[in-house]
Design brief:
23% strand; alpha/beta; 428 residues
Amino acid sequence: MTYFFETYGCQMNSAESAALVVVLKEHGWVPADSGEQADLVLINTCAVRATAEQRALGRIAHYAALKKSRTFSLIVAGCMASRLGRKIGADFVLGTHERNRFPAILESIKAGTHSIETDEKPVFSFSPLHLEEGKSRAFVPIMHGCSNFCTYCIVPYVRGPEIARDPDSIYEEIRILGDRGVREIVLLGQNVNSYRWEAVDFPALLEKSVGAIQGTGIRWIRFLSANPADVSPRTIEVLQEYPVFCRHLHLPFQSGSSRILAAMNRRYNRQQYLDLIASIRNALPDITFSADILVGFPGETEADFAETVSLMEEVHFLLSFMYHYNPREGTKAFDLPDRVPDPVKLERLDRVITLQKQHTQTLLHGRIGATVPVLIEGISRKNTGELLCHTEHEEMVVVPGSPASVNSFATLKLSGLRGNTFYADYVP
């Protein structure tokens, strides 16, 4: 029996897909080259933005049409499955709290019944291992769900409130990943830095994670995504103390306007965000930042938008994930008045994209000539004689080399740029 996955959305979905693949392999399934050839197609969906849902719905429709010409099973999993349930029309719908049903679904598919009966109430549980084989980087969920209820966000409704993972299972997974050749781990959570399990808070978890990688080949640790409201002084101290934590931080700010941040229920204002950036830079002068930026929130004026632009100018992010507001039914913002017209949202989005491209290029050009450690993660698709690498700042680098060097660290001198990708030379 063969399977094929399509995964959309955040890194949490990627980790959860990897965990489901582990279950499939334990049950004797093997990967197919495409969905058109597989006995099972699983689409792991995202519901955060309407565009993500539309993309997934298009793929679901494609496979539904394909089922008219050949027999296979279609599973829709993830946040959209939690939001829409049986309305999706797949053979099986696997919400974010229903992963324990997956083995029973596999047995049902093998038996040809396409139905399972259970009286169990869906309860979220963490998988013991999230590993995509052959990858240098692994994603390790440490918590699930979100309790912030930002007014624009559907996540608390489709993933539920925050649930922390037992820290001992986190450390054990990290050790297993290290033994299997992983070189970098990313600790994941919808609001990762609000983690707490009994007396273990997020800074304590970070410190003990450093201990968990001792004796393994893991050299770098990152975490996603941090809410600025929950970055504690102790967290900054831990990052400063241990160089194993990559000097790059994704710190979404969404809007530069304190008025809009309050309407979003973000729990910090413009000045608090800028003060946090200053504190982190004071402790870690070589750090770079990326961010999420949301334009066109209901009631956003040109003056509010100008504050977003000025915050970008003040911080200079290396990268940003930029999008305009999409109404999500069920969120508090869905019923807010004063919606920004679509042409205005698109024009504002274009302006922040243009500005971010300028900042990215300025920062990258300033790095030419630097000597940096990189993790070699693969072979370039465009040129099989080149290796793909990334720095701890999440900068992409290509360098000539042999496939034997994949999954190792090297020291390179950044020689120039091709778009946003460095080319480099080895340092003797």
